[in-house]
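quick one: adenosine-5'-diphosphate bound model?
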Amino acid sequence: MSNADQESWSRVKERLRAEVGDDVYSSWFARMDLEAIEEATVRLSVPTRFLKSWIQSHYAERVLACWQAQDEKLSRIELIVRSAVLRTAVPQKKPELAQVANVSESVNRFTNGNGAVHRPPLAAEGTGHEALGGSPLDPRLTFETFVVGRSNTLAQAAAKQVAIAKRNDPVMFNPLYIHAGVGLGKTHLLQAITWMGNAAGERKVLYLTAEKFMYGFVSALRTQTALAFKDALRGIGVLVIDDLQFLQGKSTQAEFCHTLNALIDAGRQVVIAADRPPSDLESLDDRVRSRLAGGLVVEMGGLGEELRFEILKARVQAARGHHPSFDVPAPVLAYIAKTVTHNGRDLEGALNRLLAHNKLTGHPVTLEMAEREVRDLVRPQEPKRVKIEDIQRIVARQYNVSRSDLLSSRRTANVVRPRQVAMYLAKTLTLRSLPEIGRRFGGRDHTTVLHAVRKIEGLVGNDMALAEEIEILKRQLQE
Ligand code: ADP
Ligand code: MG
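yep, here:
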């Protein structure tokens, strides 16, 4: 290859980097090499098939355009995969001819073969890819321990369907996308699929958190073994990704999208959990979102009281396996199910406290003890949201003035006091800031509001009648 060619190549790289940005450039092009320029064809190589197909489908025209900016006679880009194995096996300083021979050999191996050739072992033996081992699983999160209720029937049924499907069964819905708020059983279901699927041995199920997925791929790219990573992915029957909302970074998302498409197109099952529906994953691009939405999207609702009760009952049963003397009377379970938050984690926390208390003190679990132990997990009574308009309306009625009097600039005593009371209530019953309250009271300054609040605070300490009036107003507003 001539020096002139090498110089053109340097300029093409610069141009490309300027056009796509550093991030994209280093993800996809950093490992691209110029192999040869022959007449109108530029031959470039990348280390992996995956990079090749990615660049081909997303950047082929752009790369060509960059070359044409150097030399308009060029009309074709040929992208080939060079073999990392061959590369490292031959000495660094090799005659040009040898390199050409190597390249053509790898072209034959990778483009003529259909992928069956020389496939690296599955499960990343020896490649050091932690990601390919999957994220750790909790042995308690199985279908046996998953309690089914109204809010999760569909999700559980779909999950089970995925777990028991046979290798060659047609894929019924792909991806299966489960979304729900925190602590409502997403991870539990996903891990249940993984346990059951792998126990059946029909299809290898890989469970990854989105973080693990990012980490695995990014490090795979860095260590130049994206090929091994991709091949290992190919050995997977079911890919399970938890907490997709945490997937971040443009190139990671691009990679996710590519993996998703590749797996789905190859008829592999993909299962995803996130804390929101696909349409709300703002950082993903439209095509990925629509692909995600194209399978079965199931929402799991809050755990209802009945379901909470059943989960608690099952938990106590399980705990009795290790602590036979642990007993929680039904009224206590009912109390916890009724009062503790909808979050499955708090239910677990509540029972753990009862268990700890019971073990450490030897006292039996009673309702009284439960009330004391789980007090801070009790679902707060949703305070009613008080609106400033309501405050103005009710205060005006109480003092027999009009709402527009309160907002006006009139300073007569019969309006000033009610106005101050209303501002005071707005400050104490809503989360609005002083400037906001000022705006809502006819565009007053925040110092005026502050003055009103201080004034009323000072008065209620001495003026019993006013204190009582304010209490009555508060009660009316909060009813
Ligand atoms: P998420 O991943 O949705 O935040 P998890 O799956 O981690 O929630 O669930 C939180 C806790 O609640 C776990 O201990 C889980 O076992 C429990 N849990 C949630 N739903 C159920 C259910 N239907 N049956 C049994 N346990 C459940
Ligand atoms: Mg989770």
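The pocket of magnesium ion (ligand 2) is lined by residues 186-187, 242-243 (CB under 6 Å).
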